[in-house]
Each structure stands twice: as structure tokens, then as C-alpha cells.
Amino acid sequence: MSAILSVTGIDQQFGGLHALKNVTFDVEEKEILGVIGPNGAGKSTLFNALVNVTPPLAGRVLLGGTDISDMRTHEIGQAGLVKTSQTVQVFGEMSVLDNVSIATFNRTTSLAESRDMAEEILEYWGMTHAMHRPADGLTLAQRSTLELARATALDPKVMLIDEVMAGLNAAEVDLMLDRLRRLNAEKGTTLVIIEHNMKAIMGISDRILALEYGELVALDDPISVSRNPRVVEAYLGA
Ligand SMILES: Nc1ncnc2c1ncn2[C@@H]1O[C@H](COP(=O)(O)OP(=O)(O)O)[C@@H](O)[C@H]1O
Ligand SMILES: [Mg+2]
């Protein structure tokens, strides 16, 4: 195994708040890495730093050995690192198909080809039946799936997924977990997943990274992390 994503010394401050403190870790190729931590720990801030949505004050990010730290978000996406947001962002009045076509149009100059690619992606994600519906008419689970589908349009090497299971019921969570496992197994996409649902994240992850007050406090297999005193304390305190 080799590191597909190498993160070194990420620091972030907002005014007097030290939101990320020298965060350093590697993600292995084809790994599923879970990211946990109490509300406000800095999980979303970390993702925003990695793709320069909110550039960090310090630190470097290597993707497959290439330094992407100074690239713009869309260039980082083209290079193979994409992020899905905690709040699902779709164009409500547009059809599901058009929502994905916008993303696939980054890979081709042909409108027809971008639609074909979008249809293929929607089929992969089990969304063909909803293809011509306006995105506004989707259930929360379908919108989350659409957000993931759009993120795969660039055929990323690594996906950063921020709480895509929030608000879903148990059956929808199970379906989402199946789809993420399948994406990882079939396409070899490396996944970094922020998730509050402990059962879900412990079950799907190869390793778990725990953040607390902007500091990496644990990075180990799920069982070891769930027994880590600092992690137990943070969750009991929260
Ligand atoms: N753009 C920003 N400006 C100021 N403070 C921010 C900004 N983004 C996040 N924060 C603060 O940084 C801390 C970490 O937030 P966040 O990364 O969203 O936590 P998490 O995702 O772990 O719940 C919080 O105290 C939050 O209020
Ligand atoms: Mg968050």
C-alpha cells in the first residue's frame, strides 16, 4: 500500500480560534478512512483546507505524490480530489440529469457525450428512474445520492464526503453504505468520510481518524479508536 493523499502540518485559524492544529496524516490508496469528532472539532474545516475552499494558514497536501496545496479548488478536482458538502447543493429547478451533465461537461466538449456520461453515472447510482425529475422533487436520500453522483463525474481518485448520511433513516443509511462500499471496491476510489453515525462509520472504515479541538487525537483501526480513552472522553463529554 502507498499513500494516495499525504497531509502535512495543516493549520487553520479563524480570529482567535485555532481550528486546526498541525494536522498530519496519510490516506492509503483504496482505503476507506472515517473522520470523527464532536461538533466544532474542525472536521469540515479540514476538508475545506484540503481542497482550498478555505485555504489553510500552513501545511502541504500531496495527491499521488503531486503537491496540490497551491491549486484552486477546481484544479484540485481535475487532479482527482473532490469534496461533497455537508449541505447538499443541487440546482433545484434543473432536472437530475442536467445536474449531473453540468459536472460531466468538464470532461468533454460534446453536449451529447456529457449527457451520455451523466446517464451512465445515474444508472450506476440507481437514479435512472428520477433522471428527468427536477432536483427539488427528490427525497433527502435521493439528493444526497445525487450530490455523490455529481462528485463522481470527474472520476476522482479520492472523495472527501462530509456527512452525507445526516437525516437518513436506517434503511437509507444501509443503502448509502452499500453504494459507498461498491464505489470503493469496483472503481477503486479512495474515500474519506466524515460521519456522526458511529455504527455506520465504524462498520465501513478501514481506519478512523479522530479530531478534537482541531487536533488529531487518534488514527487507528475502528476497534482501537473506539477504545481510545481520549475518544471515549470526548464523546461522553459531548
Ligand atoms: N469560515 C469560518 N470562519 C470562522 N469560523 C469558522 C469558519 N469555519 C469554521 N469555523 C469554526 O471552526 C470550528 C470548527 O468548525 P467545523 O470544521 O465546521 O467543525 P465540525 O465539522 O467538526 O463540526 C467551529 O468552532 C466553527 O465555528
Ligand atoms: Mg462539519
Descriptive notes:
Helices cover 38% and strands 26% of the residues. It is built from nine helices and ten strands. The strands form two sheets. A six-stranded mixed beta sheet has the order 6-7-8-3-9-10, sandwiched between helices. Helix 3 packs parallel to helix 5. It is globular and about 50 Å long. Adenosine-5'-diphosphate (ADP) binds next to strand 2 and helix 1.
Distance between the termini: 35 Å
Biggest beta-sheet profile: 6 strands, mixed
What would you call the structural class?
A: alpha/beta
Q: Label the overall shape.
A: globular
What is the arithmetic mean of pLDDT?
A: 93
Strand content: 25-35%
Tell me the helix content: 25-40%
CA-atom Rg in angstroms: 18 Å
Topology-level CATH name of the largest domain: Rossmann fold
Enumerate how many helices there are, as a single number.
Answer: 9
Q: Domains counted in the coordinates: how many?
A: 2
Stretches where pLDDT is under 50 for at least 5 consecutive residues are: none
Please state how the strands of the largest beta sheet are arranged side by side. Answer: 6-7-8-3-9-10
Chemical compounds bound to the protein: adenosine-5'-diphosphate, magnesium ion
**DSSP strand tally:** 10
